[in-house]
Amino acid sequence: MIVVTAPTGLIGRQLIQILLRADAPIRVIARDPSHLSDEVRSRAEVINGSHGDAGVVSRAFDGADAVFWLVPPDPKADSVMAAYVDFTRPAVAALDEHGIKRVVSITALGRGSPLAGRAGYVAGSLAMDDLIAGTGVALRSLAMPSFMDNIARQAGTIRDHGKFFLPIAGDLKLPSVATRDIAAVAARWLLDDSWTGQSEVPVLGPEDISFNDMAEVLSDVLGKPVMYEQIRLDAYNARFVQFGMTAAMARGMADMAWAKDQGLDLTVLRTAENSTPTSFRQWCEDTLKPAVLGQVNQRIHP
Fold first, then answer.
1. So what's the pLDDT on residue 295?
2. Rounded CA gap, 60 and 67, in Å?
């Protein structure tokens, strides 16, 4: 039995489809099962609740062999460590209680870098992994750069203004990965019951690419000029506060962006093994372009 947390998120919902195609027995933890597809509700066992709740994870882990662990965003958390480490503590207790054999977690690049401790969400994510590793469970920590899919959050701005914004230098080439590839790597480890030990598995996408490069690709795919604009860190931080994040969580986002701008995501040497296939151009064609055009159509046909 494989337990999947965050099953309605970008990674989780794609992971579930791969596992279902493999006819794997699945148990999902969902705060709102109505957000699951009919197929998932009919073919997977559903545990209703938060995977930060001790009773919920205890029920979910009972009789399971493997767990996919992903901490959901919590914009209202008191601190980054509360959002990652404190949220994970009940699950860590349940791993021991129920003898879970393998865990595949989603974490961040940066381990071993002098920047990591000042990198906001990255620091929280790495501390979360240390907590899980302390149980001795077999662990594969999938270490991520930024997601291509995050650009889709700015689909409306790209549509209306031909721009997207981040506080990172436009000419800095960094790894970037599509969530579909993360799901595929996670599924491969979850479906393999032969591995033991603990290790980090970087998942880097196919190439390093700058935001200026992304703007050129976007312009070509969308058939309209798109520019990237670097914004100030304080403006970036203020925007998250305006959206309702606590000051600590907004600062965590800004600190992470600062560290990435200093090269945090370049600490791992790219190899064929840690590179994944989906290019930024392919992701734009498949995901961002429909999102932008869909918003245009919604405006025409309210």
1. 54
2. 10
